[in-house]
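Bench notes, afternoon.
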Amino acid sequence: MKYLCFIFFSFLTIACNRQEKIDLSRLNLDEPIENVIDFKDRNALEVNTVEYPFCFLIEGKNLGKFIFDGIDLKGHKVFFQVNAERLKTDSITKFGGGHFAMQGFKDKTELSKILTEYKADDVIYGFRLEMKTPDLKKEILKKLEIRYGKGTKNPNTDHGLYWNVKKENKYVFYAPDYDRLIVLNSSDLSKKCYWDSMNGLIDFGGCDNEAYTKDLTKNRTDPKDIKNKPVLKIDKNWNINDLNLGTSTEADFLKSATSKNFERVITSDPNGVLQEVMHENKYNNFYFYFIAGKNGENDLKSNLLKGYSINDFDGVEVSFENQLKKGMKGEDVLKVIDKKDLIGDIELKYSNTIEIKNPAYKINLIFDDNKLFSSMYVLKKE
């Protein structure tokens, strides 16, 4: 009898453990955030312009909590997507390469505060699954084909496929070239277009890319409506308005006239480890970054200026001591900066960025769709 009781108890324990797992394949993708995360985990809301810039991603530790149609996903990252209206601006994509910002939260109150600040929903609308191994990619693809049939070839990648599952209101993007499976609730998304950096632009039929991009970036402030633009002067050593890289402190910045209309933001990773001290001016689209000193981020006299980014020259009045000018063509930049001091696709045939060689700082000049100098950033190298 005791033996039977032990078996029954063991069965209940196993059953309870199984019930705790969330099957990503069965989600409607309109579930409340708190239903798919565990506040005991170290969670963070993340802006990630490499993954997808126009929403929040929720990242937490995956300790075997998730499965996909019976496949155990332990050890593979899962990111949930959350709509955030304030992130629908192209300024964050102009950072160049990749921009990451994390805000950790420990409970529902902290989560709600961040969601309110960014006018974000309290429900998810998709997930992004990391597929690190060839075996997992094969298993996932097999499950997708059993469920949805053969996918449509993604013309932008070598092995990518996608499904427009209208009966479930889902878009499914299998992107093995980038180790990702992306599944989205399509109810509130464009029915004609989709874009992210893992899939490129997908045309579901009749896609107007210009109109689609305009909708994605609908919260951008029109440059002609920006008033009282800050005046920025950048010297030949890339210091800005007499704030010196590597020596000026956060306290120096706050004393300067340049600090007007900035908000201080502390970012940390899911483990609560400090990542960055930042001052952001979202209206004029430029930012200052500081390295926390030995006494922590609250010792303003020890936090040193790490760098800055000006994400849209139309939001400021900027001048350069080295004769660079807003709106210059790439070929004209070569008349100001010697070709031997530049890195990368100097002729801008395949990219929109020119990097300037510097032993201490990463300096990127960024060009718009018309190949005109439109933004930049300078950051101390790690």
